[in-house]
Design brief:
Elements (H helix, E strand, L loop, with lengths): L1 H12 L9 E6 L1 H10 L5 H6 E5 L2 H12 L23 H5 L9
Parallel strand pairs: 1-2
């Protein structure tokens, strides 16, 4: 878990830490959300404030949609995540191999 967050942080901050406004993880497995809740206390407060993790489920889905809509136009958010865009959301190859799929559109 910590290794994953370290990797994400290293890649995001490689050029300039100030350039990253936020990292949003949508439909995270509940185990990831639980572990992140424990690990986040070890992160720098500035880093922690830039990372949002939303688990798969109705409660977190509503919170994630509200968060995305707070800084993105509805037309820019794919339907899979509560917006109105028909843009295709790519699933990384390693996720496809692991059987991970996107939630169906509403």
């Amino acid at each position: 878990m910590l290794a994953l967050l370290t990797c994400v942080r290293a890649r995001a901050w490689r050029c300039s830490p100030e350039a990253v406004d936020s990292i949003v993880l949508l439909n995270a497995p509940s185990v990831f959300s639980t572990l992140y809740a424990m690990v986040q206390t070890w992160l720098d407060p500035v880093t922690r404030s830039k990372i949002k993790v939303y688990a798969h489920g109705k409660k977190d889905r509503a919170r994630a949609e509200a968060y995305l809509k707070s800084f993105m136009d509805d037309a820019a958010i794919p339907k899979e995540f509560g917006g109105s865009s028909d843009a295709e959301v790519a699933v990384p190859l390693h996720a496809k191999q692991a059987g991970i799929t996107l939630p169906s559109s509403r």
